Amino acid sequence: MHTKVIALGRAEKPSDGFSAQTVVRGPLRTTVGRSRRSSGRESRPYHVETGESVELSEIIRESLAAFGGRAVFAQDQDYGEASHAFERSVRQFPEAVLYPESAADVATALRAARAAGCTITTQAGGHGASEDLRGSILLRLDKFDHIGVDFAKKKALVGAGVKMGALTDALRGAGLVPPLGTSPDVSVVGLALGGGHSWISRAVGLAANTVRRVELVFPQGSHAWVDDQTDPELMSVLRGAGGLVGVVTAVEIDLAQAKNLTGGSLLFPVEDGPAVWRAARYLHAPDPLSVFLASTRMPDEPYLPAEIRGQHWISADAVSLDGDVAALGRVRDAGTPFADSVRAIDVTEIAAITNDTREPGATRQRSAFLSLLPDELIDRLLAWHRTDAGAPVMILGIRPLDGAMAREDEDHKSVVSTWGANWALSGLAPHAPTEEAARRACDALAELERIVAPFAVAGGIPTYLDSAQKLEQALSPESIRTIRSVRSRLGGDVIRPQRL
Ligand SMILES: Cc1cc2nc3c(=O)[nH]c(=O)nc-3n(C[C@H](O)[C@H](O)[C@H](O)COP(=O)(O)OP(=O)(O)OC[C@H]3O[C@@H](n4cnc5c(N)ncnc54)[C@H](O)[C@@H]3O)c2cc1C
User: Fold this and answer.
1) Does residue 286 belong to any structural domain of this protein?
2) Predicted pLDDT at 305
3) 197 CB near ligand 1 (under 6 Å)
4) Fewer C-beta within 10 Å: the chain N or C terminus?
5) Strand ordering across the sheet containing 247-254
6) 94 CA distance to ligand 1 centroid (A)?
7) Is residue 38 pLDDT above 60, yes or no?
8) Is any atom of ligand 1 closer than 6 Å to the C-beta of 430?
9) Which pLDDT band, with edges at 50, 70 and 90, does 56 fall under?
10) What average pLDDT does range 310-321 have in this prediction?
């Protein structure tokens, strides 16, 4: 889920411009023009459509008379930039990209989608992009950027366009921590609607479980707050499959109190991996302390700075809300750390602990819930990651699913469950957006899946899914039934059934 190296994005840049090709889909012929990035702007139209799609965009355009925001169509100069997702292994071709400025604009967009026979889908950054979006209008709620913090009640009201980094900036010095994962660039809403494993999950549960109220434009166009009293079933779907039942304009979330926020990384040579992972396995840490383990293997590529190029290291990254990091002593003593940055920090510094890439790129990933993390699995995983077969996986990560995640939250139901699992394993394989590179990444991740299979249990977190995976790979059949039933009750056909 994270990378130590900001420079990673440079890997993607040379191949960032897609080559010209023609895609035929049914009666619709779509010509995808060459897109070369220069100063972050497209040099010419990225996507030119002919035939039926032009008619489709005309119907959408005509239905948007009351729409107050920006509307971008395939014929427009800025379509390429507007339609791209952060996750570049997915190419998106929505019929239009709309930037609503009010809930009324969202309702207008829903009407336009119905008039054109399209579906609607909403995307914040598109870190979790998964489909090509043909036949859909894409909404981007960047303008919904309000943040309200009730410091006394430890709550934040956050608009759908707000990124985690903006929220942590608003909380600077306040001793409060939101449910943030390792990236400051994902939206609060995108993380929480997909489950979201965060630095405070051991203390308060998954990010979705911190959501107290959701402000939603329903598929039929009405706009209202929903909570666990008014519609617990809908809330359970919003906590994990939130993009499937309407357009969320804001959420109210609980914040965790941090009396003595502490965090940082212990970095070890790769040889220390087995001992460090063993030591970190049963830490008996207090709930306010989270330790994420990773084996990070950088490619041997010239675009990387010399100090990390081709390097492989083991990390134990930690955040403690109350400053009690005594349990980390065992981890520290298990190897010979070559760096130790654990210290008192402000909430705005949490993102720097893992230093996730901030550049869009193509990535494949696999995750698994594990019941056990026995010695034999630790040894096998770490030994495999040192071989050529494991090389495409840049980050092999393990996070615990204990603490609050192991306690049932009766008052705040969710379609996501971590029951029966003790660890979340993830493998992240960034690659150049070429078929050959994607194939190598997928082969390595398939091998990783085979290695962990004997210890894997059902379940997952939707925010951990690979772009090609469906929700059923993370959620139970019962949860999928609940999602479908709520969609049907709300008349949700107009919402694109993404990953469903
Ligand atoms: C560098 C990096 C680090 C990450 N670290 C973590 C981590 O620590 N923990 C973790 O759990 N995940 C992590 N992720 C995964 C990330 O949380 C998910 O990909 C998340 O969905 C992306 O958020 P986004 O804001 O880009 O949302 P998007 O990809 O834009 O949207 C995600 C989903 O939410 C829906 N959605 C978004 N906005 C709305 C809205 N307003 N109304 C209705 N539906 C909406 C979308 O339709 C989509 O289904 C990481 C990803 C990256 C790239």
Assistant:
1) yes
2) 86
3) yes
4) C
5) 147-150, 155-159, 247-254, 211-217, 223-227
6) 18
7) no
8) no
9) confident
10) 97
Q: Is residue 41, in this structure, part of any structural domain at all?
A: no
Ligand 1 atom at minimum distance from 241 CA:
49
**How far apart are alpha carbons 124 and 263 in whole angstroms?**
28
With tokens 């979340």, the residue in question is: 424
Cα of 482 to ligand 1 centre, how many Å? 21
Domain that holds residue 272: 262-473
C-beta of 142 in contact with ligand 1 (< 6 A) = no
Q: 38 alpha carbon to ligand 1 midpoint, in Å?
A: 27
463 CB within 6 A, ligand 1: yes
Ligand 1 pocket member 129 (CB < 6 A):
yes
pLDDT tens track for 400-420: 999 999 998 999 999 999 989
Q: Give the CA dihedral 9, 11, 12, 18, nearest 10 degrees.
A: 160
Q: Crossing angle for the helix pair 375-385 and 273-281, nearest 10 degrees? A: 140
* Mean residue pLDDT across the chain: 89
Q: State what percent of residues in the chain have pLDDT above 70.
A: 89
Q: Residue 402 in contact with residue 373, Cβ under 8 Å?
A: no
- Would you say the CB of residue 90 lies under 6 angstroms from ligand 1? no
Tell me how far apart the alpha carbons of residues 193 and 209 are, in angstroms, rounded to a whole number: 10
pTM (2 decimals)?
Answer: 0.90
Tally of domains in the chain: 1
pLDDT computed for residue 75 by the predictor: 92
Q: Which two tokens stand for residue 74?
A: 């395939």
